[in-house]
Amino acid sequence: MALISKKKIVYKINPGLRRYLIKYSRAVDIPIHYHELLRYSNSIALYDSKDQDTLWETVFYDQSDREEIHLNVKKIYALLKAGGDMSVIEHLYVDRIDLCVYGNTQPFRVRIVNRINDNFDYFYIKNADASRLYGLELEHLLSPNRMSYLVHKNTLIEEHIAGIPGDKFMRLHMQDPHLNPIRLAKEFVKFNERCFVRLLGDMHSSNFVIDVTPDFEETHYRIRAIDFDQQSYEGKKSIYLPQYFKENNVLIQLGMKFITPESMLQYQKEERALIAHRLRSSHKGIEDILRAMEHDRISPISNINLLKLELAKHYGNDKFLEASNMGQILRISLAQLLKK
């Protein structure tokens, strides 16, 4: 069973990471920052359709602030979704701004609605944490998923990742007659491998969503991480393996029932081959992000020393023992994929 040692430290963006963000057009000037949204005058608990407390609070602003804040929030949405084309905000309005009071960085979630067709979307305004930024960028470069986010100073703007939360899916959808247990179990194996190779930790069921795509014959699944705060942070190897979280037991048992050890090994090799292909095709970006990580401190030294020992033993690779930071550990982990 995987256990997080203690509350994660929040790390500031260092100059090397800032240069990377500027080079790859992730850094932009935005009209409103995280700390300005903290000027709300009141808040109420947000409940879901079944009257369950979501642990989010809807915040309200004084009339003197509200109009300006809502306009600037819509401008941020145009930067995130339309490359800064402000004409898209003409028919948009801010329906709600929520604050996650239990989150590590206490993010704001904005609900934007198109008044013409009532279509809505979400995005997040957060305190920028270097660990999360490395996690978002590595997800963009090494996974099948493209990530949309922007940074200005210490504010992070992040797109909403659509899908059914993992805990909700396991609670409500496992008896669906259209469920394809083999495909779902296979995707969990591949997700487990992706997280371990690129050292993304804490992937229990509340930190990923399941994207379900019905096809004319089959149903396809993709498991997507939605929390990147534990990128290359913890020292225990098990934290980077979703298979060790008890919250994921339903999916783990599904794999034990429907997937043979031979098939599991095949899926792991397939996923590693795909990551290796992305390493080659995005070599410049990955080299730049690894170099930034290698000159950054994003984990306590005790975690670094423990993880390099555990990975050296796991892989039988003493190169891990030479690493002095998480960036170097990740580089060695990825380099193994390129060996014939």
Describe this structure in words.
It is a single chain. It is built from eleven helices and ten strands. It is an alpha+beta fold and 340 residues long. The mean pLDDT is 94. The chain is globular. It is 41% helix and 19% strand. The chain folds into two domains: 15-159, no CATH class; 164-338, Phosphatidylinositol 3-kinase Catalytic Subunit, Chain A, Domain 5 (Orthogonal Bundle), CATH 1.10.1070. The strands form two sheets. The chain has a seven-stranded antiparallel beta sheet with strand order 1-2-3-4-5-7-6. A three-stranded antiparallel beta sheet has the order 8-9-10.
In short:
The chain folds into two domains: 15-159, no CATH class; 164-338, Phosphatidylinositol 3-kinase Catalytic Subunit, Chain A, Domain 5, CATH 1.10.1070. The chain is built from eleven helices and ten strands. It has helices at residues 15-23, 34-37, 63-82, 130-142, 166-172, 181-197, 249-258, 261-281, 283-294, 301-315, 326-335, and strands at 42-47, 53-60, 92-100, 108-114, 120-127, 149-152, 155-159, 164-165, 208-214, 219-225.
